[in-house]
Amino acid sequence: MLAQRTELFDGTHAPLFPGVFAIFGHGNVLGIGNALEEVRSELPVWRGHNEQGMALAAVGISKATHRRQVGVATSSIGPGALNMVTAAGVAHANRLPLLLLPGDTFTGRAPDPVLQQVEHFHDPTATVNDAFRAVSRYFDRITRPEQLLSTLPQVARVLTDPADCGPVTLALPQDVQAESYDFPDALFKPVVHRLTRPRPDLHSLAEAARLIRSASRPLLVLGGGVRYSGAAGRALRFAEQHGIPITETTAGRTLVPHDHPLHAGPLGITGSTSANVLAGEADLVIAVGTRLQDFTTASWTVFAPDVHLVSLNAARFDAVKHGATALVTDADEGLRELTDVLGSWQAPGGWSARAAAERAKWDAHITSLRAPGSDLPTYAQVVGVVNEVSGPTDYVMTASGGLPGELIGGWRATGAATMDVEYGFSCMGYELAGAWGAAIAHTSGVVTTLLGDGSYLMLNSELFSASFAGHGFVAVVCDNDGYAVIHRLQTGQGGTGFNNLYADCRTSHASPPRTDFAGHAAAMGCAVFPVDSLDGLEDAYRKAREVAAGEKRPAVVVIRTHPSSWTEAGAWWEVGVPEVSHRAEIAAAHDEVVAGKAKQVRYLG
């Protein structure tokens, strides 16, 4: 691990594995634990307090470093290992590198069944760690030490390959952990991992250029692959040279300066009406580094039925989706070569100007949503305050509930690649755990995570982990009395409020208890700044930033927010509304689903 280095975008070198998150148990404390203790001065080890949380923190490192460094987490066997499966799912869905080292049962089987072992009656080779297979890019169970000689190069490949990047799970039986082996010295020689940049096939490049030249209304969509390639500058120059409006996906947010004249805004359900309007009129979409998730495409209704799709992606799996003309390429190299082939070609000036005109309308809408006026602060108002105070080196995060829509749609970029909205898996709890990882990775600026009360209650143990380790970030907790955005989906599709807002949940109490978020966060070692109204939010947030940066511990701002005020981008999303129901409202909602599906573009060709 210590010998593995990585080349950052500025050409400097850093450890590929900056540290290890660990919770020790009988399955890893003596083997991996002793090994880590021997190098504790060279390889930081941070103690977690929930295996899912610490593994999510490891994911946060990988995202904050744009996949140039890899977070590592180790656990014992049984429940400790299974707790990390969700984090593997987050990394897999978001194409992020993550190395998981769960302990495993004895290969010798003499003491079977051991503590925390789940026995499979018809397969003695199966353990709970096989659950990782569904959420790992690469999985191996090391039953002999020498197997590492063939496995470790594959581990490094998956963790650093732009096309195959994702989580790696190495299940380590505790008796094998204890074995010795005379590994060759060459295994421990320093290795620097550099970003590979595959170039596009020339025939595909020519076909893509032909389609672009024939377009009168092209649209450029920038995804996470642009971020991980370090290609944001190239993408802007490409757009400027050819006069092509730019939109961003969730993973591509903040790649484009907000006020850039070609910036049409973020695309999709949680995006902006400005980008969605242009997408509906575009006759060609150039998708760069994106897998075109349903929230980006509005369940494939945001594009015109006769649109053509050119897809640049390092992964062929993504490049060929929906009948696209596929360029299997690094984003930076692909855009450079495409620029060379297109030469002086430009889109019509009237179309290019539409980006700024439409985005100005959306900006005015967001400004109106941020203006004070409601009794309880809205998410848009809270995000507006954080946005106004944040600077170009700050980093903002969220993951689930209603806040992704507010950040994706409403945030005005303060710096390049300064947002992490985990909306591939939309994992409740990532907001706090991932912020811990991001705070470790960020050496300048303040990390701010925004989350609802539901996410806070889902997973908050790593607040103490960050407090104890000395990693500061700001958490803005918006308390709206329950799972408000799912309540919105439930009632918006004809259902009645049930089991989401606390007012609709079963309880035997006439006056159910409320969570004291400020008191709880203080007990976890955090500085706390409760706020009663929007008026005091800016001052509280500024003070929280000072504490996070100066005292090296999390600072938590708690504010009550409106439960039913949201930023809307005017796009449709397909959900499974029952075809038959006792409620007429649900039947009507199902009819809307049928109508929406009729507008879906199934194959762009």
Automatic annotation (TrEMBL):
Q: Does the keyword Hydrolase apply?
A: yes
Q: Which Pfam families match?
A: TPP_enzyme_C, TPP_enzyme_M, TPP_enzyme_N
Alphabetically sorted, this entry's keywords are: Hydrolase, Thiamine pyrophosphate
Gene3D superfamilies recorded: 3.40.50.970, TPP-binding domain
Q: Which InterPro entries match?
A: DHS-like_NAD/FAD-binding_dom (IPR029035), Myo_inos_IolD (IPR030817), THDP-binding (IPR029061), Thiamin_PyroP_enz_cen_dom (IPR012000), Thiamin_PyroP_enz_TPP-bd_dom (IPR012001), TPP_enz (IPR045229), TPP_enzyme_TPP-bd (IPR011766)
The reply to whether Hydrolase figures as a keyword in the UniProt entry is: yes
Q: Where is the Thiamine pyrophosphate enzyme TPP-binding domain?
A: 419-558
Q: Which residues form the Thiamine pyrophosphate enzyme central domain?
A: 205-338
GO BP annotations listed: inositol catabolic process; isoleucine biosynthetic process; L-valine biosynthetic process
Q: What is this protein called?
A: 3D-(3,5/4)-trihydroxycyclohexane-1,2-dione acylhydrolase (Decyclizing)
